[in-house]
Amino acid sequence: MSAHPRVLVQRSLPTPPATRGSKSLYLTEAAQQGLTPERKMLFVGQEPANEHVAAGLRVEPGENVVARRKMFWANGVPVRISTSYFRTDVAENTRLDGQGFVLPTLQAAIEDLGHRFGHATETLSCRPATPYEADLLDIPGEWVVQVLRVGVSTEDVPVHALETICAATRHVFPIGQAVGTDQF
Question: How would residue 177 be classed by pLDDT, with cut points 50, 70 and 90?
Answer without folding.
Answer: low
